[in-house]
Design goal:
The structure is a single chain. This protein is α/β, with parallel strands linked by helices. It has a single domain, classed as Rossmann fold (3-Layer(aba) Sandwich). It contains nine helices and eight strands. The strands form two sheets. A five-stranded parallel sheet has the order 2-6-1-7-8, sandwiched between helices. Strands 3-4-5 form a three-stranded antiparallel sheet, with helices on one face. Helix 1 packs across helix 9, helix 2 packs across helix 4 and helix 7 packs across helix 8. The longest helix is centred in the C-terminal third of the chain and has 17 residues. The protein starts with 6 loop residues before the first strand and ends in a 5-residue tail after the last helix.
């Protein structure tokens, strides 16, 4: 892919590893725009759920795409995501939507639509983007690529605490099993599975604080 004029930091990794928190911190510290690509897939899943659609049905899912408009705005250094001009930034953070996002992300038309939008946003500015295939597929030209990882139990615990902080139901053992299923789905999907790009920096965040992870990434940034 032809290199663009933008400057991008691509952060990939499995569920519960702290990608969003890390990416947001890096963006704030470097005064860059933050783009949470997972939120875009969550918005598609939320539309399916709210409209009673079967997101596992390929025809139904693809027919709904023309009715979905997703916009991202950065307000005070924080990302807000809009679904059909409605702010759904909090609504997309439930476990149900998280599971749905993993399902819709396996659909080729969904990925084509969102990847095109993500590439357009990154090509014209300075962005920090996180997801599952940013460095390997969405932004292979990114100047800095990072793959975050952590042990399964650590990731499940983080996810449990995150849901509890939002007053949402969260049982560690259930979250752990869902994390295993999510890992399997993300790493083995046919379309751009979760992988570490060959030139990505590997960081095990198991014993690191969010700020430590962010600072480690910033250390690799050279304009």
């Amino acid at each position: 892919m032809k290199k663009t004029k933008g400057f991008a930091i691509a952060i990939d990794g499995p569920v519960g590893v702290g990608k969003s928190t890390t990416a947001r911190l890096v963006a704030q510290k470097l005064n860059m725009a933050y783009i949470d690509t997972g939120a875009m897939y969550r918005a598609v899943a939320l539309y399916q759920i709210e409209n009673g659609l079967d997101m596992t049905n390929k025809e139904s899912l693809e027919n709904s795409l023309d009715k979905i408009e997703i916009s991202i705005f950065n307000v005070g250094g924080f990302q807000r995501i809009y679904l059909n001009k409605r702010d759904v930034s909090e609504l997309i953070r439930t476990q149900e939507v998280s599971e749905g996002a993993s399902i819709v992300a396996g659909n080729e038309r969904v990925r084509e639509m969102l990847v095109a939008k993500q590439r357009q946003m990154a090509s014209i500015g300075r962005v920090v983007m996180d997801g599952r295939d940013i460095g390997s597929h969405v932004l292979p030209w990114a100047q800095v690529k990072v793959y975050l990882d952590a042990p399964l139990d650590t990731r499940a615990k983080r996810r449990t605490l995150d849901l509890e902080s939002k007053s949402q139901p969260a049982e560690f053992e259930k979250i752990r099993e869902e994390t295993i299923i999510r890992d399997e789905r993300d790493k083995n999907r046919k379309l751009n599975p979760l992988v570490q790009a060959p030139d990505a920096i590997y960081l095990d965040t198991g014993f690191m604080t969010p700020n430590e992870v962010a600072d480690a990434i910033i250390g690799y940034v050279h304009y």
